[in-house]
Design a protein that fits this description.
It is elongated and about 130 Å long. Strand 3 and strand 4 (97-108) form a beta hairpin. The protein is α/β, with parallel strands linked by helices. Helix 2 (8-48) packs antiparallel against helix 5. The chain has two domains: 1-49 and 207-240; 51-191. It has helices at residues 2-5, 8-48, 56-59, 169-176, 212-238, 254-264; strands at residues 54-55, 74-81, 87-94, 97-108, 113-122, 141-149, 163-164, 184-191. A five-stranded mixed beta barrel has the order 2-4-5-8-6. It comes from Agrococcus sediminis. It is found in: Cell membrane; Membrane.
């Protein structure tokens, strides 16, 4: 077998199998990393979702930064909504229907603004506006919200006046002209101890790790498959798998035939 592997033809096959194995292994590692990310997201949800609320300044000591491990942590806000600055987050689905999320900046007691996603409201049929106007509370309010990271800008997606395509916190902060938390925003849990009646607040997400583990195993099996194909080809050649050429048929002349007749006579 080693003698065959030294032949250029089989060296080429082995090189192809190695390149194929490297590519498959890279895809396998990628799927494994995606599984690790999914497990980390599940762990954050389970660890933080039902915690007791903490003051927003404690959860976000640096308004422009955000620790991903803080996702879903409930925070306590005291202050008031800036109702004149609220926006509609377009293109949000709930129960098979498209609508808006109500994005309401909230000025805390220390003057820093924290952006709150109050919840979903249905879109009027055939119109770029909600069925009913949101009834965001005015005056002093106590809010509990769960932390979510800044969504950033979605390239190529615009929105009419008073609406946004994503929760891009630095952009929202520019329009407010006040110190604003730009590392994270909050999904509303309650206002003054109760759920709002004008919007549907976000439900607890259902997360799972997905099929990444099985995909990882499949890619590594594929990586071994290339070498298995080379080994099978070597075995077939060693066993004489190549067809043995049959001897050519000798053409007999008339003289040969006459000689045979005379010999038999």
């Amino acid at each position: 077998m080693l003698r065959l592997l030294r032949q250029p033809r089989w060296l080429g096959y082995l090189a192809l199998a190695t390149a194929f194995a490297i590519a498959c292994s890279a895809f396998g590692v990628w799927q494994w990393n995606r599984r690790e990310e999914a497990l980390a997201a599940i762990e954050r949800l389970e660890s933080n979702y039902d915690r007791q609320p903490v003051p927003v300044a404690d959860a976000l000591p640096q308004p422009g930064a955000f620790d991903p491990d803080r996702q879903w942590t409930p925070v306590l806000l005291e202050g008031e909504y800036l109702t004149e600055e609220q926006l509609l987050l377009r293109g949000r689905w709930r129960g098979g229907q498209v609508g808006f999320d109500v994005i309401a900046p909230f000025r805390t007691a220390d003057g820093t603004v924290f952006v709150v996603d109050r919840g979903w409201i249905d879109q009027a049929e055939g119109a770029e506006e909600p069925v009913t106007a949101p009834a965001t509370p005015e005056g002093p309010t106590t809010v509990v919200a769960r932390l979510r990271p800044n969504e950033g800008d979605i390239a190529g997606r615009g929105a009419p006046e008073g609406q946004i395509a994503s929760v891009n916190l630095p952009s929202i902060a520019e329009g407010l002209g006040a110190p604003t938390y730009t590392g994270a925003y909050g999904l509303l849990v309650s206002e003054d101890g109760a759920a709002p009646g004008d919007v549907a607040i976000a439900a607890r997400p259902v997360l799972d790790e997905g099929p990444h583990l099985s995909y990882t195993l499949q890619w590594f099996v594929f990586a071994l498959g290339g070498y298995a194909a080379v080994a099978w080809g070597l075995r077939e050649e060693l066993r004489g798998g190549a067809a043995t050429p049959r001897p050519g048929r000798v053409r007999r002349t008339d003289a040969d035939v006459e000689d045979d007749i005379l010999d038999r006579g």
